[in-house]
């Protein structure tokens, strides 16, 4: 077969084209392979960057499925990431709690629907991670179905740092608040100045000190607490403190609440710019210092007036003060205090003047006395001097290392002690020769002193008192000598009254031998008790005889009273007859009488009335004393009852020019015999009318008290003394010879008292000369 050239050319061209095409495809495939490798390496690099980045992506699809690296699972405390968002809660090994998941789900749904971004922070319950979530709508190239892309950031370290900073800030805030509160509550004025030395902060004490309204006003007006001193203001002093970086303290005076007071002002530079200041009121300290100086001067002035020598030495053992008696006791020269003479030298001067005891080794003795400065106890010594003077030396170490030396001349006291011993022996001799038996008991109850008659008065042996027995032991021995041993308690009571109660007491006992002893106790000034015992057997026997005679007289008086009580009929009948005949004569029954006879008949009727009243009083008084007074009690309204009695004496009150006031509540009532109570009140009212001068006033008052009903009748008369009141209450009594009846101030008051007492009440008389008399009836 013959091949044509054209065909060969065509075949060649086709082969060339195919070869070129194949080469091109090979080059294209090689370039694509290189691009794939580059993309793969870029993806690995991006994936590694994502894994190393502080943020982890979380893709939440529209159906709730999630895509996230396992790194996020570790942050959430899970072993692996779940498939759906709802499975992040309820995991046993970690995840979110229900509230966190609900909040996250709400944010995701809102972002998927509205493409609104969100941000939230959460801390998984089982993880220590603090996570921040920032969510947006995912790009369609990432997820075309409207997924939410959430970037999760781990800011645990930042959160810890923020927590620490918050705690520090809160602590600093609390400390600053406490500091501000402390400054505000400080009782002293405090302030703060800025770099320009102007006031920026003051406390309430500063405001009160300068008399301003508020701290703001002080700062605004720059009111200074301390005025200028020598042309230098408080701000300039503070500026000097700030420049030196050293506190400046000074004592100045300032006016606080209208008073000039001393202040210790301190300006203290602070770290940074600013100067703080505070002022301490030292006025009281200054006043105390002045008072101390005045007290010391007054003390030394008083010590100069003492009769006891007093000297003071300082911690250097030098004399700082010595009063005049100390100079006199030791014969010291006048300028020894001004020269600040030492203690050892003072002893040397006293030795030269013969004012210390004779000692064998004076240097050793002086060194021993110098040890008083180093001791903590008070030292006391007795120094007999060569001239028979006896000194009592008292050395009192002081807290500051000094010494107070007290020298007392006891020569006269020793002489007095000897005199006292003589007096004691004289007292003992006097006690032993007294007629009465005496004993002195100490407050602790033991027998301290007695005379010779004391043991014999109680029938005791002298040996029973040896050893100064206690009161209990002595009373036990005395009880055996008593007719009734129980009466020993009365003796014990008298002893206790004198020694413990410090009061007088007396008593009497009978002994088994028939003797009667009268004893009394008297408290002594030294705290002891003096017991006196006297045998009163003879006087008691005479007293008993007098009592028997008195009982006989009382019986005779009772017989007389009963006799008078039974004579009511014999007394009243003749008087009634005489009164009746007198009324018949005056009425003209027998015949018409002449004027003279008519006057005599009327006088007889009046006299019979008065005599009848007196006889009634005497009989009632006699019956009352004998207990034979008949009573018919019934309830009585007091106000109308007393008003009736007053009305019957209206003429006497008007004629006497008197004023009578009656005061009572209308519901007051008592249970009594109307006739007898009326007589008692009438007698008292008549006495008040007679005793009250013209123009006087009588008061009748009825009151209800706890102890009963009181009817008080008061007048403005001349009044009575206590003796006259006693005589008025006595009424009648036998004469001194016993043969008749002596009448005292009438029968009205005694009869009224007897009538009131027969009702179970009492009559009280209160009177004072020139102030009137008050008679008070008290009824149960």
Sequence stretches where pLDDT stays below 50 over 5 or more residues: 738-746
What is the top-level CATH class of the largest domain?
Alpha Beta
End-to-end span in angstroms?
183 Å
Could you tell me the radius of gyration in angstroms? 62 Å
CATH topology of the largest domain, by name, is Heat Shock Protein 90
Strand content: 15-25%
How many helices? The count is: 23
What portion of residues is helical?
A: 40-55%
Just name the CATH architecture of the largest domain: 2-Layer Sandwich
What does this structure look like?
- With 780 residues, the chain is of the alpha+beta class.
- The protein folds into seven domains: 1-52; 53-154, PAS domain (Beta-Lactamase), CATH 3.30.450; 188-281, 2-Layer Sandwich (Beta-Lactamase), CATH 3.30.450; 307-404, Beta-Lactamase, CATH 3.30.450; 416-535, Beta-Lactamase (2-Layer Sandwich), CATH 3.30.450.20; 550-628, Orthogonal Bundle (Helix Hairpins), CATH 1.10.287; 631-779, Heat Shock Protein 90 (2-Layer Sandwich), CATH 3.30.565.10.
- The strands form seven sheets. Strands 2-1-5-4-3 form a five-stranded antiparallel beta sheet. A five-stranded antiparallel beta sheet has the order 7-6-10-9-8, with helices on both faces.
- Helix 19 crosses helix 21 (674-691).
- The longest helix has 48 residues, at 5-52.
- The model is unreliable at 738-746 (pLDDT under 50).
């Amino acid at each position: 077969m013959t091949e044509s050239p054209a065909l060969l050319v065509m075949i060649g061209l086709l082969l060339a084209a195919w070869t070129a095409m194949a080469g091109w495809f090979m080059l294209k495939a090689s370039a694509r392979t290189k691009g794939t490798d580059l993309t793969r390496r870029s993806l690995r690099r991006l994936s590694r960057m994502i894994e190393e980045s502080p943020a982890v992506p979380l893709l939440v699809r529209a159906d709730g499925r999630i895509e996230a690296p396992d790194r996020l699972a570790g942050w959430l405390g899970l072993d692996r990431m779940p498939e759906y968002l709802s499975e992040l809660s309820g995991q046993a090994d970690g995840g979110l709690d229900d509230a966190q998941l609900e909040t996250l789900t709400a944010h995701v749904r809102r972002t998927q629907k509205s493409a609104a971004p969100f941000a939230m922070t959460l801390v998984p319950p089982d993880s220590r991670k603090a996570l921040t979530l920032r969510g947006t709508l995912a790009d369609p190239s990432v997820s075309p179905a409207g997924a939410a892309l959430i970037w999760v950031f781990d800011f645990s370290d930042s959160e810890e740092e923020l927590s620490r900073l918050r705690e520090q800030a809160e602590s600093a805030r609390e400390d600053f608040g406490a500091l501000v509160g402390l400054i505000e509550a400080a009782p002293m004025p405090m302030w703060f100045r800025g770099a320009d030395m102007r006031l920026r902060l003051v406390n309430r004490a500063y405001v009160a000190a300068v008399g301003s309204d508020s701290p703001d006003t002080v700062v605004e007006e720059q009111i200074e607490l301390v005025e200028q001193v020598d042309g230098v203001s408080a701000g300039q002093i503070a500026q000097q403190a700030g420049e030196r970086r050293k506190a400046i303290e000074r004592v100045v005076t300032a006016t606080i609440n209208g008073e000039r007071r001393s202040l210790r002002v301190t300006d203290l530079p602070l770290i940074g710019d600013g100067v703080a200041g505070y002022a301490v009121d030292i006025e009281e300290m200054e006043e105390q210092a002045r008072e101390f100086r005045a007290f010391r001067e007054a003390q030394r002035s008083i010590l100069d007036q003492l009769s006891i020598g007093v000297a003071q030495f300082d911690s250097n053992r030098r004399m700082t003060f010595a009063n005049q008696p100390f100079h006199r006791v030791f014969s010291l020269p006048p300028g020894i205090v001004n020269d600040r003479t030492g203690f050892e030298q003072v002893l040397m001067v006293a030795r030269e003047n013969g004012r210390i005891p004779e000692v064998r080794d004076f240097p050793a003795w002086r060194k021993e006395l110098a040890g008083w400065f180093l001791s903590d106890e008070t030292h006391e010594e007795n120094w007999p001097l060569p001239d028979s003077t006896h000194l009592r030396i008292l050395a009192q170490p002081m807290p500051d290392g000094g010494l107070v030396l007290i020298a007392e001349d006891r020569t006269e006291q020793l002489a007095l002690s000897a005199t006292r011993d003589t007096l004691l022996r004289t007292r003992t001799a006097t006690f032993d020769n007294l007629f009465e038996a005496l004993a002195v008991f100490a407050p602790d109850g033991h027998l301290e002193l007695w005379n010779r008659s004391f043991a014999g008065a109680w029938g005791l042996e002298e040996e029973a008192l040896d050893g100064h027995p206690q009161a209990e032991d002595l009373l036990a021995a005395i009880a055996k000598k008593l007719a009734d041993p129980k009466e020993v308690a009365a003796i014990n009571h008298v002893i206790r009254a004198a020694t413990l109660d410090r009061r007088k007491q007396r008593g009497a006992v009978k002994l088994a031998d028939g003797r009667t002893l009268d004893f009394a106790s008297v408290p002594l000034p030294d705290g002891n008790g003096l017991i006196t015992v006297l045998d009163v057997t003879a006087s008691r026997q005479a007293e008993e005889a007098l009592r028997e005679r008195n009982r006989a007289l009382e019986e005779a008086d009772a017989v007389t009273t009963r006799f008078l009580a039974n004579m009511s009929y014999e007394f009243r009948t003749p008087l009634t007859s005489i009164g009746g005949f007198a009324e018949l004569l005056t009425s003209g029954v027998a015949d018409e009488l002449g004027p003279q006879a008519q006057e005599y008949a009327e006088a007889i009727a009046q006299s019979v009335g008065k005599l009848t009243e007196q006889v009634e009083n005497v009989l009632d008084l006699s019956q009352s004393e004998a207990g034979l007074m008949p009573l018919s009690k019934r309830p009585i309204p007091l106000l109308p009852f007393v008003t009736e009695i007053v009305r019957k004496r209206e003429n006497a009150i008007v004629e006497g020019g008197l004023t009578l006031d009656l005061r009572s509540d209308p519901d007051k009532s008592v249970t009594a015999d109307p006739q007898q109570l009326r007589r008692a009140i009438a007698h008292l009212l008549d006495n008040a009318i007679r005793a009250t001068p013209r123009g006087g006033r009588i008061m009748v008052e009825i009151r209800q008290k706890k102890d009963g009903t009181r009817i008080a009748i008061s007048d403005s008369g001349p009044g009575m003394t206590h003796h006259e009141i006693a005589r008025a209450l006595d009424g009648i009594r036998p004469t001194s010879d016993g043969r008749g009846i002596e009448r005292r101030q009438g029968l009205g008051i005694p009869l009224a008292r007897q009538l009131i007492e027969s009702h179970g009440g009492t009559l009280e008389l209160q009177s004072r000369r020139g102030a009137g008399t008050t008679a008070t009836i008290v009824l149960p």
